[in-house]
Amino acid sequence: MLEVSDLRFAYPGRPAVLDGATMGLEAGERLAITGPNGAGKSTLLQILVGLLRPQGGRVWAFGAERRVESEFYEVRRRAGYVFQDPDDQLFCPTVAEDVAFGPLNLGKTPAEARAIVDRVLADLGLSPLRDRVTYKLSGGEKRLVSLATVLAMDPDVLLLDEPTNALDEPTTARLGDILLGLPQAMIVISHDPSFRARVATRGLSLRAGRLISPASLG
C-alpha cells in the first residue's frame, strides 16, 4: 500500500536524518517504527503524504509512484495522518464540527456529514463529547477526537505519530483496543514498548538514516 526506497532527506545545515531508508506496508499490517528522538520518524511520515519532499529516493502509494504535489492529493485522502500534537489537527469550535470538516470537504452533504459524525463518535465511544468545545477537552480526549477526524474520511491507511504521548494508562489501553478493532493498515510511531508489542504486527527501527528490523517489538 505504501513503499519508500532509498529515501534521503536532510534539513538545512544539519546531517541527513534519512540516508537510504527503505520500507513497505502491506494491507492489514500494523507496522511500528521506533528510534531515538530526532532520528527522522516524523519526517518519514510527512514524506509519505507529500508534506515534505525527499532529496533522493522514491515514494510509491496505492500502486503508483508519487513525485509532485498533484500526485499526493489522492494519497492524503487515502492515508489518514494523526499528528503527534492534537492541537495541530483540531481547529473547529466543537468536536462535531472538527469531525465533520473532512467529509464536508470531500463533498458530503451536511446531512451525510452529520451521519458520519454520529457513526464515528459512536464507534469510538466518544458520543458524549459531540458538542463539547474542542480546546476544553483533556489531552487524552483530544487524542481520540483527532483519530475520529481521520476515521471520518474513511482512509485506507492510518499514520499515527506517537499516539500514546501524554496519555494515562486507561486511555492508552482504550486506544489500543480501538486500533486493534480497525481494519486499516497502519504505521505507528511509538516510544512505548508495551503499546508496540500489543498493537503492532511488525516492527522497524530507524537508526542512522536507515530502517532495520529490531530484535523484538517491545
TrEMBL record:
* GO CC terms of this entry: ATP-binding cassette (ABC) transporter complex
Q: What is this protein called?
A: ABC transporter component
* Pfam families tied to this protein: ABC_tran
* Keyword tags: ATP-binding, Hydrolase, Nucleotide-binding, Transport
Q: Which domain of life is it from?
A: Bacteria
Domain ABC transporter: residue ranges: 2-217
Question: Which EC numbers characterise this protein's activity in its record?
Answer: 3.6.3.27
Q: Which organism is it from?
A: Rhodospirillum rubrum (strain ATCC 11170 / ATH 1.1.1 / DSM 467 / LMG 4362 / NCIMB 8255 / S1)
The GO terms this record gives for MF are: ATP binding; ATP hydrolysis activity; ATPase-coupled transmembrane transporter activity
Which family is this protein grouped under?
Answer: Belongs to the ABC transporter superfamily.
Q: Which residues form a coiled coil?
A: none
The record's section on InterPro entries has: AAA+_ATPase (IPR003593), ABC_transporter-like_ATP-bd (IPR003439), ABC_transporter-like_CS (IPR017871), ABC_transpr_CbiO/EcfA_su (IPR015856), ECF_ABC_transporter_ATP-bd (IPR050095), P-loop_NTPase (IPR027417)
